[in-house]
Structures are given as structure tokens and as C-alpha cells.
Amino acid sequence: MGLRTHSGPFDWQACVDFSKRIELIDTQFKDFFGNLNEKGLYQKVSEPWIYFMKEVGVFLVHDFTMYKPLSEQLTEVRKKYERRVASFYRQIAQKTLFIYYVNTDKDVDYINQNIDNIKNVLCKFNSCNEIIFVANLGKHLDVAPTYYVVPDTGDTVARKFLDKNADLKQFLENLPFDERQRCINKKFHDKKELKKKLSKPYMKFKKYLDGVYKKPYIHTLRIDVK
Fold first, then answer.
1. Is the C-alpha dihedral spanning 106, 108, 112, 117 positive or negative?
2. What is the pTM of this model?
3. Collapsing DSSP states into helix, strand and coil, what is residue 43?
4. How far apart are CA 219 and CA 226, in angstroms?
5. Minimal CA–CA distance to 49: which of 213, 212, 211, 157?
6. Contact 64, 77 (CB under 8 A)
7. What does the mean pLDDT of the chain come to?
8. Measured between alpha carbons, how far is 123 from 131 in angstroms, rounded to an integer?
9. Spatial separation of the C-alpha atoms in residues 172 and 151, rounded to whole Å
């Protein structure tokens, strides 16, 4: 669709619940950076390249390799998040539409009970900021606008939710957006997807070799959570 111009800090995280995301935005990611260290990160036992920030409820899914000590990777990961967080706040200082996908009862309850606070947090950066929700059918929100979708078979979400709600797709397609920037974004996305496709055999072979010749790093703090 060409609407994505920048990668944000949440693109590289899996967060336990929506309230944590709002708290991070409201506090300049204070607790996140405060726990981005060896004492604040727990290595996932079943997937040792993933680290769980227990105090914040955030999974760092794409940031680390399982073959290097955590201490050797933290500096670059911190720099990356500092850049992305700074960029995020620059962007939301302009009029921004936030979109959040709801698939848990905990998020439903939080949003229904705290929608005014959610909007206040987002609008303190720009009074014209807005938020819409995409929710699994059956997860009823008392707020509008909410667009409902059916999860994919055997999954907890609809991975391509725009294909499952024509009204939402039309709404986003009709948003005022610089057409030149939209074309740039589409070209960048297509180039990235092509590169990913072409490199897939190499990455698969590299993963195999790493598994044979490299020894996984075992962090002192470990946890197994879904």
C-alpha cells in the first residue's frame, strides 16, 4: 500500500500487552532502556536468539544472535533503538494515525476502560493524532472505529488483515498521503522483499553451518515463555 515510510521501535518487538506500549510511549521508553542490559534480559530457552525483558513485558525477537555473548551485542542494539525511538517521536509530532491489532481479552478490557487516557497520551505529541483498532471477531471493543477480522486458520491473528476487511482497506487507501512518497515506499518494499527472497537459500545454508560449527551462548538468566 506504500504507507510505511519508517521502521519504528515496536516493529522489532513483541509486546505482552497494549498497556505496556502506551506506558513506553508516555515515558520516552524509560523502563525499556533501563532494562536493556544483562540483568534485565532473559534468554528464551526454546528460542535462544530471543530475549524477554521481564520488567517491561517485551520480547526482543530480531535483535540478537544466539552465537555471541549478550554483552558483546548490547551496545549496537541500544544504538539502534535510540535511533528508532528518536525517529518515532519526530514522526508522531506530526499528525499520525495509530493502528493497533487486538486479539486478547486483556487488551479488550484495558482499551474499553482506558480509551480516554490512551488518546490523551497519543495526542500530547500532536493534538490531531488518532487511533483505530483492528480486532479479532468476538473481541468486542466499546470504542470506534474498530474493524473486525477473522483470524487465519490455526492462528491467533489475521496476518494479512487488510484482505479480510474491505472497509478498512478502503479507508487506508483513501487516506491523504503524498503520492511521490507512496511510490518511494512501494519501491523500497518491493526491493526489500526481492532481496529477502533471493537470500533465503543462503540464509538457510548459513543457519545450518552455524548449527554445526558454532556453540550457542547460554545467558545466566533464562526463561521459557510463549
1. positive
2. 0.86
3. strand
4. 18
5. 211
6. yes
7. 91
8. 10
9. 20
